[in-house]
Amino acid sequence: MKSWLRQHRYAIGAALGNLGKAPGSFLFNVIVVAIALTLPFAGLTLLDNVRPMSQQLSVDPEISLFTTPATTRDAALAMENPIRAILKGTEPSIVFVPREKALATLKAKSGLADVLDTLGDNPLPDGYVMKLGALHGAAEGGNVDALAAQLRALPGVDTVQVDSAWVKRLAALLGVLRLALLLLAATLGMVVIAVVFNTVRLQVLTQREEITVSKLLGATDNFIHRPFYYTGALLGLAAGGVALGAVALALRPLNTAIAEFARLYASEFQLAPLDPLAIAALLAISAALGLVGALLSVQRHLARLN
Questions:
Q1: Is 55 within 8 Å of 137 (Cβ atoms)?
Q2: Count of CB atoms within 10 A of residue 106's CB?
Q3: What is the mean predicted confidence (pLDDT) over 65-70?
Q4: Can you give the residue range of the structural domain that contains 173?
Q5: Beta-carbon neighbour count of residue 77 at 10 Å?
Q6: I want to staple 197 with a disulfide (CB 3.0 to 4.6 A). Which of 67, 111, 217, 293 is the partner?
Q7: Please, which pLDDT band fits residue 59 given cuts at 50, 70 and 90?
Q8: Number of structural domains found in the chain
């Protein structure tokens, strides 16, 4: 164990020593990689802030149910229990709307009271208005349609109307944004790997004679490769830290502009930085990308020296 730790401590020291020989080149590479990482990190921060807001917006989608003209009042009232059974688990608010109340509301809101009075009989059916308070999250908008289909199958039901179209649009928009962010992250991840690949290649070429001498002295491949692996990981880690710092700094002017806009809608919405666990995960991913780039470069270029 001590030998293993000593070897890795030596590899880290050698990597830092190699970076110290050309700090300007290392800093330039860190900036290039950080620019590539800033876009997906910023997109992830934005989505992380929008997700809880979309959950709040999607509360209480509404379903309206209308009975057939032949359905009696007693039969309409008896529908409440089957409706509650279908909507079980969604914390529904179910309000029965008798046809007389529906007609009175229509007269009050439409301004056609005189016209409606000439009809004689009330043409409106009994109905129910249901608000599904437990459907938090835009991604659950599709569940509303499934519930509506079950309600339509009840005997005595004529029409079921659902107002969840906007919920599904929001879910689709967030899905598109997630996919776009994933594709962007994959593309820029390849850029990070390519930059680290080239950086390590230049180091290998610069230390070719030193590597050859080390092999003649009996150094193993792992001993020679390990400092380059740490170089790539340190480059990715440093670039990830710079990228996260740039995103955090950009939140300040953005929040100033957002606060002025949010006040117009009586809101206090602000963009918050990522939580520590997410930051640690992004730093780990950055270091892993650098390690992959170094691994590919070492396997390709040091093999030629064997």
A1: yes
A2: 16
A3: 88
A4: 2-55+169-305
A5: 12
A6: 293
A7: very low
A8: 2
